[in-house]
């Protein structure tokens, strides 16, 4: 295979791996560009396992950025949330990636709490469904060691959020209830869907007003939503959009996106509400191409 053929064949894997490792679209695209240039220097004719070799290149490129990302998060004002991927074109290759892989925004948020090694093993096994033998080859670790890391990592995540298989897709009814509350100030129907220990996380990046700490419990989330409604935080128009894992909301004012609202929904109810408000994470949203919900089937 030629370099460009290898890249096209495994670009989907590269995108998923890099995005889940780093949590930002720009960094993911930069990684793919770096790997594309590096792959041109590889003699692929003698590479026995192109898939594993290509994935290792992506992971190694990610490692160089993770330390810088950690340093930035240490001084980041308030909680840091991954940049959501909004699909505004069903023909976009990202739509196929998101539909094919087991990606949800809530899972992406959880993955960011892992160590580099845990994150790598979990993404390759749980999200991309690599065989343990493949992961062993990529990371140059024994297969039993890889199995142990994955088992420990999955348990670590489930201790935080419950069984990962219990995470539910975000449907339009749930999103509509939030929009109704944001437009009227009455969040009663939405609040009924929350778990008792629900957590609302806001990411303003120090550039817009946002809660600097998570809001925890149904009572406090209700008070918070009603409070910011009275202060005018929900003024604007609302669009139901498609992200990985189901529907989300884009709030816009005079054609400019100001907030992306996402949810983590489990069998017991809504466990998390996420407000992404950092302008650097939402400026790519193209309001003129937002797909109406009825076109997303």
| Tally of alpha and pi helices | 12
Number of strand elements: 7
Structural class: alpha+beta
The CATH class of the domain at 172-295 is: Alpha Beta
* CATH architectural group of the domain at 172-295: Roll
Shape estimate? globular
The sequence of SSEs as H and E is HHHEHHHHHHHEEHEEEEH
Radius of gyration: 20 Å
Rounded mean pLDDT is 88
State the major sheet: 7 strands, mixed
Strand content: 15-25%
Helical fraction equals 40-55%
Strand order, main sheet: write it out: 1-4-5-6-7-2-3
Terminal residue distance:
36 Å
Q: Which stretches are poorly predicted, pLDDT < 50 over at least 5 residues?
A: 291-297
CATH topology category name of the domain at 172-295: Nuclear Transport Factor 2, Chain: A
Domain RNA polymerase sigma factor 70 region 4 type: 107-157
GO molecular function, one term: DNA binding
Domain RNA polymerase sigma-70 region: 7-70
Protein name: RNA polymerase sigma-70 factor, ECF subfamily
Question: How would you describe the overall organization of this protein?
Answer:
- The structure is a single chain.
- Strand 6 and strand 7 form a beta hairpin.
- The C terminus is likely disordered.
- It is globular and about 65 Å long.
- It has a 7-stranded mixed beta sheet.
- The two termini are 36 Å apart.
- With 297 residues, it is an alpha+beta fold.
- 50% of the residues lie in helices and 16% in strands.
- Among the domains are: 75 residues, Rna Polymerase Sigma Factor, Chain: A, CATH 1.10.1740; 124 residues, Nuclear Transport Factor 2, Chain: A.
């Amino acid at each position: 295979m030629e370099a460009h053929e290898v890249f096209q064949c495994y670009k989907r894997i590269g995108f998923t791996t890099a995005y889940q490792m780093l949590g930002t679209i720009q960094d993911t695209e930069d990684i793919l560009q770096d790997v594309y240039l590096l792959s041109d220097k590889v003699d692929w004719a003698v590479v026995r396992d192109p898939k594993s070799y290509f994935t290792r290149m992506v992971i190694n490129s990610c490692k160089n950025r993770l330390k810088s990302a950690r340093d930035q998060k240490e001084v980041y004002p308030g909680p840091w949330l991954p940049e959501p991927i909004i699909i505004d074109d069903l023909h976009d290759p990202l739509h196929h990636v998101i539909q094919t892989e087991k990606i949800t925004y809530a899972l992406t948020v959880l993955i960011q709490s892992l160590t580099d090694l845990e994150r790598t093993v979990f993404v390759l096994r749980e999200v991309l469904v690599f065989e343990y033998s493949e992961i062993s080859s990529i990371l140059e670790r024994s297969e039993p060691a890889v199995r142990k890391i994955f088992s420990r990592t999955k348990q670590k995540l489930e201790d935080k959020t419950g069984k990962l298989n219990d995470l539910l897709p975000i449907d339009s009814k749930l999103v509509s209830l939030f929009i109704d509350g944001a437009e009227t100030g009455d969040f009663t129907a939405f609040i009924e869907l929350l778990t008792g220990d629900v957590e609302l996380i806001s990411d303003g990046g120090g550039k817009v007003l946002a809660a600097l700490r998570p809001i925890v419990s149904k009572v406090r989330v209700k008070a918070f939503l009603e409070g910011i409604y009275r202060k005018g935080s929900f003024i604007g128009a609302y669009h139901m959009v498609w992200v990985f894992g189901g529907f989300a909301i884009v709030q816009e004012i005079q054609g400019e996106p100001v907030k992306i609202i996402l949810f983590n929904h489990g069998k017991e109810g809504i466990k998390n509400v996420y407000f992404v408000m950092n302008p650097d994470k939402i400026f790519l949203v193209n309001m003129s191409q937002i797909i109406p919900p009825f076109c997303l089937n």
